[in-house]
Structures are given as structure tokens and as C-alpha cells.
Amino acid sequence: MAYLSIEEIKGYLHEENVDAITRNDDTVVQAAIDSGISEAKGYLKAYDVDAIFNATGAARNALLLTFVKDLSAWHIMKLSNAGVHYEYRKQVYERAIQWLKDVQKGNIMPDLPALANDEGEPLTNGIKFGSNDKKSNRF
Question: Has residue 74 been placed in a domain?
Fold first, then answer.
């Protein structure tokens, strides 16, 4: 079983709408799911994305699953006529991206498995180091 199934997306967006947009082509739905997952993975590099996206059923993080559904739904909806709930889907897509950016920045710490070394110890301790850009002053 996959992290997110075609049936779950069809239930999330109403099967008749998905079928109308994709013209009953489940490969289009699967491509949208794959795109949504890939997009989410790009923001979650500090986490064990293999463990996260290999989880199924109740083992999945509910909030992340909702946002991956929103991302996948956006990839389906952008194929439809412009008037079909376009603004709403755009807003939930942008909300999902904002949440992923906040996770990436460390502003939000979701209950997701962190990357670990060979001994199973987390690779990150939640502390980020950095500095301001170098400035050169000339007088």
C-alpha cells in the first residue's frame, strides 16, 4: 500500500469530480499524488522521508497527510476549468506550502521521525547555526 492512495484522493475531492477532470485516467491521479509527495519531501529534508512516506494507515502523521492531499488535489485541480473551486484549492495549496516552509525553517516541529545515523541517534538536535551575510564597508 502507498502513502496516499488514489481512492483516498477520490474521496477527498469527490470521485465524480476527479473522474471528470482526469477523464477517468487513474494515471493522471497517481501522477498528481506523486507530485504532491515529491513536493512535500523537498521541504522535509531534516526528517526521515523514507520512514515518513513509507508509513500507511494510522501510522501516517494526520496533519502532513492532509497537506499532501491538498498538494495532490492542487495538481489535479489545475487541470480543470478555471471556475471549479479554483480559488479555494489555491488557498489550501498555499497553506500547505506555508506549513512545509515553517517546518523547514524549524518554526514548527511536527511529530515526524528525524534523520538518524547508523546507531539510530538523531542527526539533528534542533539547533541551527548560521550568520548574517558578509558585509564589506569601504570608507
Answer: yes
